[in-house]
Amino acid sequence: MIEHVADPILEIHDLTVSYSKRPVLWNIDLTLPQGVLAGIIGPNGAGKSTLIKTAMGLIPKASGYVKLFNKDLEEVRKKVSYVPQRESVDWDFPASALDVVLMGRYGHVGIFKSLRQADKEVALDCLRKVGMEAFADRQISQLSGGQQQRVFLARALAQDADLYFMDEPFAGVDASTEKTIIALLKEMTAKGKTIIVVHHDLNSADEYFDWILLLNTRLVASGPTEKVFTKELLQKTYGGKLNILSSVGDLLHNEQFPNRE
Amino acid sequence: MKELIRFLLLEDPNVRTVVFGTILLNLSASVVGSFAFLQKKSLSGDAVAHSILPGICMAFIFFQTKSLWVLLPGAFVTGWLSLYLVDLISRHSKLKQDTAIAVVLSVFFAVGIILLTYIQHSGSGAQSGLDSFLFGKAAALLEKDLITYAIISLLVIGVTVFFFKEFMLISFDATYAGSIGLPVRGLQLVLTTLTVIAIVTGIQSVGVVLMSAMLITPAVAARYWTDDLKQLLILAVFFNTIAAIMGAYISYRYPSMPTGPWIVVVISLFAFASILFAPKKGLVYSMYRVFKHKSLILKENILKALYQLGEQDNGFRDTRALNKLLAKRNLPLWQVYPALYRLMFEGYLQHTSKGWALTSEGMERGKRIVRLHRLWEMYLSKNLLLASDHVHDDAETIEHILTPELESRLEKSLNFPEVDPHSSKIPR
């Protein structure tokens, strides 16, 4: 069940991505409308993070293409923002919460130029939006997991983008942070922003998202939540019916065989 | 003392050369080394330092000159090549980075030693002094070389300042840096190149083997004093400068002493002292805090025991013999005596020949601990639904740490209870 839309904000066409020749994403083909809060759901190792990293040009594609706003990434870089997994960085780094949020302004300021007072004000404003203004000068290692995630979110907000990719923003955060974040995301989509979130809690998925991508190496389904979030499709995503596909993947990896001629 | 003043006034031109030389040689190393430290690449500096030797020897064999403008580029080439190989091996083979570093470092250094031995036996008259790269020769610096090193240091530091925010971002979160379109690989290449240049110059002062200390140790020391990257870089430069001056002074005062190794010893002492004594992060501070907490708990337990005895006998300010206190709460004597006298000096206890009595302040403080203990027991049994025989041990700790603000929140949320789960009255 893959629903395609006209005039998509994100188009992924026949995308295959391999690590050491083993495909982790296999022929992904999807389109996404503007203004949705979309969740990417699937088991561990399904390629969820890989999908958004590839869309951000951080991982090379084996084949296929990605279009954002019907353009190549390089042309629209300033309109796109990416929130990495919280665990992907060392929070002992000598920086304050404000320093991290200011990194969200680097793309606007341009390389080699200094940040201006205006950038600092934007960054403080973004900290305020995630309820962290009191922690601006706090060393980042002294923040709780939920607060660190809010700082990452504030950094993305500081980019002032139209399309957001977020990798597990709800992983390891407290209940009140989760509520704050989801309320903020809904507010943003109401203003026409599009947000794509990697998520692995099935219980909250249908409540949070209005569009869902079910992923397990291949794309099982993509569409509005009420059409996609069905028992049958979830079983297809999480059930072990992909044995042949993963066996072929193992074969490609073991033989170091290219997946395109 | 007179010697020290003469040294510090820099009257002697030789002293001037050595002091400025040793400072300049390692200035850039402490700046770019801080980034290597933060990127957890502390060991790659060691690989570069060792790999520089074959480059220097080859440059000498080909050009038969000891001019820095020939030897340094040679050093740069093999130093850079070693990092490239480490990267190549760890990306395209099953070997991890630490293994790749070990392999590359030893192979390059072995080739370097082979070439050096060959040069020394080839009998060409100009070879003497090449082995100074092995162990450093800060004390033998020439004034004309100073200008060269000053230019190189300023160049490295200038580029680092220019790229400061980009270097900060790729060191903290390279994935995100890529997502906003920064040329991460290119920037890393610039940083790597700066590191190699810094090592090539620094090697003149401390030599191949000790060079990685000059990269990493100033940053280690600085990290204990600040949580801000700019301050960290400035502090690293500061520590490095002081160490250079002290190293130069030691070899000036005692001519048989080498400069380079003494710089390393001094900067390592700075790092060691920082690990021990830095405020908040130092080991001594955390040990002091443990001691302070223990002593607070002990004192409050004594006040609490005396207050509880008062509850039993209905006489809170009565004088009690020590053995009565110990019967209520068994504590080793060597701990009790000093704690009792400290409580007396702090005005919580009075001492007479018959024993110890609470002052009014002591009674209030004992009462508060008892209150907090019972409130916490109440909280655990009401809100966490713990059985009343499971709440005591936890309350024994928590009673010492609750703040007045938390106390009033606790009372409010429990709706100002009269008694605790064991039906003891909660004093107010």
What does this structure look like?
Chain A is α/β, with parallel strands linked by helices and 261 residues long. Chain A has one domain (10-255): P-loop containing nucleotide triphosphate hydrolases (Rossmann fold), CATH 3.40.50.300. Chain A contains 11 helices and 9 strands. The two termini of chain A are 29 Å apart. The model of chain A has no long low-confidence stretch (mean pLDDT 90). Chain B is an all-alpha fold and 428 residues long. Helices cover 74% and strands 2% of the residues of chain B. Chain B has helices at 2-9, 13-38, 44-63, 68-92, 97-121, 132-135, 143-162, 164-172, 174-179, 184-206, 211-223, 229-253, 259-277, 283-313, 322-328, 333-345, 360-383, 392-398, 404-413; strands at 349-352, 355-358. Chain A binds chain B through residues 53, 56-58, 74, 77, 80-82, 84, 88-90, 93-96, 99-100, 103, 106-107, 111-112, 114-115, 139, 141, 155, 159, and chain B through 38, 40, 162-163, 165-166, 168-169, 171-173, 175-176, 178-182, 223, 226-229, 232.
Radius of gyration of chain A: 19 Å
Helix content of chain A: 25-40%
Strand order of the largest sheet of chain B: 1-2
Strand content of chain A: 15-25%
* DSSP strand tally of chain A: 9
CATH homologous superfamily classification of chain A: P-loop containing nucleotide triphosphate hydrolases
For the largest beta-sheet of chain A, the strand count, sense and barrel status come to: 6 strands, mixed
CATH architecture of the largest domain in chain B: Orthogonal Bundle
Task: Give the number of DSSP strands of chain B.
Answer: 2
- Given the helix and strand composition of chain B, which structural class is it? mainly alpha
Using the coordinates shown, work out and report the CATH topology of the largest domain in chain B.
Answer: ABC transporter involved in vitamin B12 uptake, BtuC
